[in-house]
Amino acid sequence: MAGRAARYDASGDFPEEDFADLRAAGLLGLMAPEQLGGAGASFADYTDVAIQLGSGAGATALIFNMHASVTGALAHTPDELVRQFGGAEGFFAFRDRVLKGAAEGALYAVAMSERGIGSRLSKVKTSYERTGSGFHISGAKTFVSGAGHADAYLVAARDKHSDEPKISYFLVPAGPGVEVQRTWDSLGMRATTSHDLHLEADVSEDALVGGIEGAALLLAQVMPQWLVASYAAVYVGVAQAVLRHGVEHLRERGLHTLPMVRARLGRADVQVAAAELVVREAARRVTDDPGSPETNRWVWRAKLVAGDTAAEVAFSVLEAAGASATRRGHPLERLYRDARCGALQPATSDVCADWLGASALGDNPDEARW
Amino acid sequence: MAGRAARYDASGDFPEEDFADLRAAGLLGLMAPEQLGGAGASFADYTDVAIQLGSGAGATALIFNMHASVTGALAHTPDELVRQFGGAEGFFAFRDRVLKGAAEGALYAVAMSERGIGSRLSKVKTSYERTGSGFHISGAKTFVSGAGHADAYLVAARDKHSDEPKISYFLVPAGPGVEVQRTWDSLGMRATTSHDLHLEADVSEDALVGGIEGAALLLAQVMPQWLVASYAAVYVGVAQAVLRHGVEHLRERGLHTLPMVRARLGRADVQVAAAELVVREAARRVTDDPGSPETNRWVWRAKLVAGDTAAEVAFSVLEAAGASATRRGHPLERLYRDARCGALQPATSDVCADWLGASALGDNPDEARW
Amino acid sequence: MAGRAARYDASGDFPEEDFADLRAAGLLGLMAPEQLGGAGASFADYTDVAIQLGSGAGATALIFNMHASVTGALAHTPDELVRQFGGAEGFFAFRDRVLKGAAEGALYAVAMSERGIGSRLSKVKTSYERTGSGFHISGAKTFVSGAGHADAYLVAARDKHSDEPKISYFLVPAGPGVEVQRTWDSLGMRATTSHDLHLEADVSEDALVGGIEGAALLLAQVMPQWLVASYAAVYVGVAQAVLRHGVEHLRERGLHTLPMVRARLGRADVQVAAAELVVREAARRVTDDPGSPETNRWVWRAKLVAGDTAAEVAFSVLEAAGASATRRGHPLERLYRDARCGALQPATSDVCADWLGASALGDNPDEARW
Amino acid sequence: MAGRAARYDASGDFPEEDFADLRAAGLLGLMAPEQLGGAGASFADYTDVAIQLGSGAGATALIFNMHASVTGALAHTPDELVRQFGGAEGFFAFRDRVLKGAAEGALYAVAMSERGIGSRLSKVKTSYERTGSGFHISGAKTFVSGAGHADAYLVAARDKHSDEPKISYFLVPAGPGVEVQRTWDSLGMRATTSHDLHLEADVSEDALVGGIEGAALLLAQVMPQWLVASYAAVYVGVAQAVLRHGVEHLRERGLHTLPMVRARLGRADVQVAAAELVVREAARRVTDDPGSPETNRWVWRAKLVAGDTAAEVAFSVLEAAGASATRRGHPLERLYRDARCGALQPATSDVCADWLGASALGDNPDEARW
């Protein structure tokens, strides 16, 4: 995949070959339990895979991350929680169907963001209403990685007829009423094809995730890892790629003995090593103790540190490498652009810092967050 | 020009229309004295123009900077210095011819860099030797902004038959033996068309700048402003553009009241204001007291602070602006890439810091520099 | 003074000898007009003096700054403004009396801050009420530089009987009812003797500054230089001292040729040079065009950049100098502590960044500021 | 101990009470094996203790670190290594004697540094020569934490009669010929009493560590953890204390809801969390796989990240806390000074960055290091 990354970056096309490989390797079923044909991976396992993918092909890793978020969140939603919502029967059937699909090669994408609301779930304008046979969903989504290539989209929408912000999730199959508008042409992570999605879709009753309405906001607080920090592993991989290609370039050019080059690489090395530890610590805690306050702090830390580290390391290593590494086609040129995107993806670094500051200072960091 | 910048950035083409405008406005003669049809501008005047150009169209400003370097260095070389080298007659005729050409619309470019030598003039591998009718110049140059569109190129070359590094300048007309290889396809400043130049050119006797051989290294120390710091003004302009487009974007999106956005913009504002002062102070001193040790310190400061400021401000303001500003075509997306290039252009920021540190610590900063 | 700085830092005593020298040199009358026996200095002149003082003895320079603020603000208050408030007669007599006093060697201090209100003038709790013969002032002040050694204190107090925040200034002579509580024992700038002041003072009618009540908040917006940025020059001086002593130490120890040392010093050099330009630009504008929106932006920039620069440069140069420079008595040890205080003095750097961000983003930065 | 830290900082006295407590708790025997009466701790165990101590009383933790370095390095020197040097018999007896002493309450200090050589072991000027009954050691040491309070000092000295730099270790008992010169009066970590030591001491044969001459340089490369990174844990503790006291101060003052305060605390939180992970990862690897190239990289990373994190976090949190936290006696005032010392202790952060850069770039980082 690393060998194809430059090409997909240049064209901005969906990395078909990468996903053919992932599908063939059974990795679309990574998060599905073994009894449904998957690998039964934990969040820590996912993190391991995502770092490796991100180190080779960042955009591919981000699309994969969205798929893993859908399947992982489903696979790991605690049964008790589902039962609290009185949704057990429907939910379990839904979950098994979706995860079995993934294990068989289906690709899922996430359609959460909308223009002007950032990632504030409670502000979602896409709406749904009941029809005779299910629901009608209407609205527009943005930043939908994998748009046009996914088999179904996880869509956050509000109940059109509720005064309260009642936000529900739907898994909307690609097809009529789901139109991709090719708006994505971006600084970095170009091959994610994160286009806009226009929805005027009629879906059946069982597209409502788990048959439960209004659970979206709660889930965001209970399982922030998939909304907040699953990107983090990808950007650790990107940062590692910066180091790897930086070292290669600097040795080739004979610049590796310059004191300032050494200083830049030394500081970059420790930053990347630290970021990886933070992301893996968060992953380990999500795996062992999901949803606890301390685990959630690590989730936010992971997002902040991974996004900032990738961007800062790319900034500094490109400076060490010099103008010759800014030619298009040079891996550092692409990585410089890719690396900048992590801190900008929600939750942005400034938002993470605010959450963590509130938490450190003893306030409720989730208050008015989503 | 600001309105065309996105288009030229996308295509990577030479900004023909911008140069038609500059030519029409008489700006190619900016540095030529009035008696030769020019504007007789000082370095401070140039700085003023370059900041404004850079604020609208960075790549155009960089090409213009190269032209201004050739014409400005010629126009401002002190007569005494020329006489010291025993080159008065030839030099003054040469100078007048070139500057008159500029005033009439000729565009000059600089062909100094070579692969693997950075900007170390003394390491230049392009060579020259005398022929019956003048000189033969042979070699390859890189990062030649305006390549393919200039009327002549200022080429640094070494005497093929001298054991000492005897480096001379030639003004080589575009034409046979001067071949452009279209290698430029870069992260930022894409419309500079800074392609490679292959030289197997026979030039007449009067192509030797001023009829003086071996003066290149000395000139670098005596007039570092044109080699080191004329870029600086361009990047102050770029940094100002980042602020301007950042404010516009943030107000449009209604993000301007967020405390972290305000903090980022406030700190960017002061950084840009400070960089402009440093660059203008250097320009004022170059104008009033060229070549003095204190003036030269300001020249190196200007280069360091302008390159770093543009890059850092673009980094931070893009983070404030968020993912929506990373779409290609958005001014901040382009400026983010353009702004990164300043610190990488020779003298790089790390080289400037080393020069300034040596100077501050009482050592000779020019020792073994070029 | 530079020679005494270590001693006054160690003891935390008021720098008696320094002020004897300043008095002897006529510098207490710096801001008083010539016809009253002073030097008739502009804000730019003050800045020049303050940089030099700060470079030798930071704490002395800060006390002097407070005195200059009182005398300078009085000397430079535009007559029109006074007339607008209907206070001409009283004000001019008051002003002349105070400035003549300064020219004759009187020292004034400022008693503005109070515990828990930072520098929010509108929150001042110290109150005043009319008595038969003048006013009674009651309250407690903190961070009163020069406390115990000033001849009179400029005190901000609120009208005890007004519901609106009606804040007025009084010049309260040292004496009965003005008690110094020796609380100052600080990380840095130790010799400022910025103790607490307890006030239960009866003052005569003419202690009310200019005979005008309720003008304090307006003055803060109209002449922010004395509240916001007169510190700035002192910290530029401190930053210059860091460079000077850093170079001396590094050469003595033979560390000046280490590449990382050179890089640190080079970057520090340019930061200090830039900060000085910003502070002098602000001073020039205050002198030429006081109170204009653009001038005020420079005032806030000056405060931000000077405080941050001093602290950052001291941080980095101490790191270059190494553990041997952390012994008490070493100038870098003291300067490291002194330099940290600038950004913490109101307006703090974070407050300045917020003000500048609001201004850059087109909002009213003074809204709800004081 | 946390309760006493302010007092010992103010006086600069050795923390007698803290060491009485440590002795009573058996912690002086922490690194001694259980069969000799100790706790048989690993490097990871030590790290745990040092973080906790550092979080309460940094100076005490640093003295303890020196003691742990002596006892830990002895306890963990691999038997094979000793045998390679042909020193088994003598070494094992020596080791047992020293460790048993520690378990019984003896305190050891390290006397390695000398003026003007930093921590370059090969440059040591203190010399030794054989006498009839043992050795005579002559020279001067600096930065000897615990000087005047240790029972014996680990002294690095060179063979006076060898042309090669043959550096050996001696354990020199306090007593005649070992004179403490009270030079320590420092910015931070004041209670370490890191005074100078003047040596004109006659020691018996068995003071030569392990009976082996010339092993010092090799040991530095084989077991860098005790020379390079055992400080690191202390500074993680210091950084944690900064957070703890910062939160306490900010809540008390009601500043905890300010956005910039939250942002500072959030970023500090993640920096401290990351530093702790790096230090613990290094400790885990030293414990499980001591001396391997990958382990040693983590050792250098730990030193760099801990020193920088403590200093940067203290810098930022003090700025959040404001001027009221700069009064002497306030924990943040002390921590600000203490925290600055980590990056300056050898190996300094710049040296660590250079080592890590060389290693990342594929060069031998230990070449010409000691």
TrEMBL record, chains A, B, C, D:
Keyword annotations of the record: Flavoprotein, FMN, Monooxygenase, Nucleotide-binding, Oxidoreductase
Reactions mediated catalytically: dibenzothiophene + FMNH2 + O2 = dibenzothiophene 5-oxide + FMN + H2O + H(+); dibenzothiophene 5-oxide + FMNH2 + O2 = dibenzothiophene 5,5-dioxide + FMN + H2O + H(+); dibenzothiophene + 2 FMNH2 + 2 O2 = dibenzothiophene 5,5-dioxide + 2 FMN + 2 H2O + 2 H(+)
InterPro entries found in the cross-reference section: Acyl-CoA_DH_C (IPR013107), Acyl-CoA_Oxase/DH_mid-dom (IPR006091), Acyl-CoA_Oxase/DH_mid-dom_sf (IPR046373), AcylCo_DH-like_C (IPR036250), AcylCoA_DH/ox_N (IPR013786), AcylCoA_DH/ox_N_sf (IPR037069), AcylCoA_DH/oxidase_NM_dom_sf (IPR009100)
Superkingdom of the organism of origin: Bacteria
Compartments in which it is found: Cytoplasm
One GO molecular-function entry: monooxygenase activity
Membrane-crossing segments per the record: none
GO cellular component, one term: cytoplasm
Segments forming domain Acyl-CoA dehydrogenase C-terminal: 231-343
Segments forming domain Acyl-CoA oxidase/dehydrogenase middle: 109-200
Keyword Flavoprotein: yes
Pfam families, A to Z: Acyl-CoA_dh_2, Acyl-CoA_dh_M, Acyl-CoA_dh_N
Pathway annotation: Sulfur metabolism; dibenzothiophene degradation
Predominant location: cytoplasm
Segments forming domain Acyl-CoA dehydrogenase/oxidase N-terminal: 4-75
EC number(s) from the headed UniProt entry: 1.14.14.21
Protein family membership: Belongs to the DszC flavin monooxygenase family.
Name by which UniProt lists this protein: Dibenzothiophene monooxygenase
Organism: Lentzea guizhouensis
